[in-house]
């Protein structure tokens, strides 16, 4: 474990990065509970039936590189941390934790102070225990859809392990899963009503480190890449994990200093591709487009101009509170 093999584990700060869209609070009643529509109650079901399996997990003694490799292999943005041979939950680690550690946030201090910015030491001699959340949010197998959504909305999480009452893992539920479960052709709410208009972007000339720092600063997992006032492509936290987990990063390192990797142009890590939708489209159409294209966000474009972004979470909120 990191505390034994790499010195005392550095504590995670309690500082919380700014949230991308605090508007979600407006969907809470005065008692702090979400005001769910009849649609949610019609689709009510237990977590055990809604959860997906198998669950791809990691352990606190897995190396950071192994974690990134596994996230890349299984194409996931979060992994439960389990006790080996027991399958009991003891933590959660996300792509944003990885982005923070790799150069975007406060966890990068571990790389700097403990490993002297050596990328090989940082990936091979540090452990999941140093970056995981030891107090993960979860639901149990018999929790209903309303409880699942309430936890996601009030705790601001998009991935939930589903546990038996003895703490062992049964499955996992994501925003994407619920959007697919609730999606309807017509919701009666337009994309422009739920999208985020203050889109955080990154220049095509920026470095990977600048993109990572922007993600952590604003609490976003995806950034449109812009060139000459138009969208060139997208970079996501999963793209960054894939860059490291696929070992492509090592082609940009000569001396072993991680800063060489962080100087990689953002357009090399991101993709020259994105999916758009009109602000006048129905939220149901946006949900279907996300599912069909296998994406977690859509850029909202009107007359060729970027006017907003809509994510799975935005659609989830809209489906949850829109009139049935």
Automatic annotation (TrEMBL):
UniProt domain CBS: residue ranges: 51-110, 132-191, 195-251, 263-324
Cytoplasm listed as a keyword: no
Matching Pfam families: CBS
Region (Disordered): 1-21
Keywords, in A-Z order: CBS domain
InterPro entries assigned: CBS_dom (IPR000644), CBS_dom_sf (IPR046342), Diverse_CBS-Domain (IPR051257)
PANTHER family found in the cross-reference section: CBS DOMAIN-CONTAINING PROTEIN, CBS DOMAIN-CONTAINING PROTEIN CBSX3, MITOCHONDRIAL
Protein's UniProt name: Conserved archaeal protein
Protein source organism: Hyperthermus butylicus (strain DSM 5456 / JCM 9403 / PLM1-5)
